[in-house]
């Protein structure tokens, strides 16, 4: 098995595990009174990610050359992904889910950047194809993902803004 296929299989298995974790968190949060926003664009996000993986599987040659520094960087990005997952814990989902009256998570990478999970996704979509010389896949899907994230981050920021106001109210009340 080549480096590409070993990594590809590991990524697919990791994403399936993350989807199961996200689904469980989503069901639990919804049972606690959470609301979903931006559900209309969610299938497009799934389609984009499936198409990216399918493109990698179809167009990365079996006798690929591995760019080791980029592969190491991809590994670092995976560590950032784990940090995001651990920091959000029970609140991590693949959808825009908000639970009223719960302060925003402000630990881990969320202390430094507003949307670290999206940074991880941007870097993955860019770096992984470049690890194997597939710059065309990196270019096309980075552009498509950028357009999708422009839409999604606007939707998420609108929801989070109401939660930030709650955080300020909680601070002012001293609770």
Question: Can you describe this structure?
Answer:
With 175 residues, the protein is mainly alpha-helical. Helices cover 70% and strands 3% of the residues. It has helices spanning 3-31, 42-59, 68-88, 116-131, 135-173; strands spanning 35-37, 96-98. α4 packs antiparallel against α5. Residues 167-175 have low confidence and may be disordered.
Question: TL;DR of this structure?
Answer:
With 175 residues, the protein is mostly helical.
Could you give the distance between the termini?
A: 56 Å
> Beta-strand percentage?
under 5%
Query: Could you give the count of β-strands?
Result: 2
The profile of the biggest β sheet is:
2 strands, antiparallel
Mass-distribution shape: elongated
Q: State Rg.
A: 18 Å
Strand order of the largest sheet: 1-2
Summary tags:
2 strands; 70% helix; disordered C terminus; two-stranded antiparallel sheet; 175 residues; mainly alpha
Describe how the helices and strands are arranged.
Elements: H1 3-31, E1 35-37, H2 42-59, H3 68-88, E2 96-98, H4 116-131, H5 135-173
Antiparallel strand pairs: 1-2
Helix pairs in contact: 2-5, 3-4, 4-5
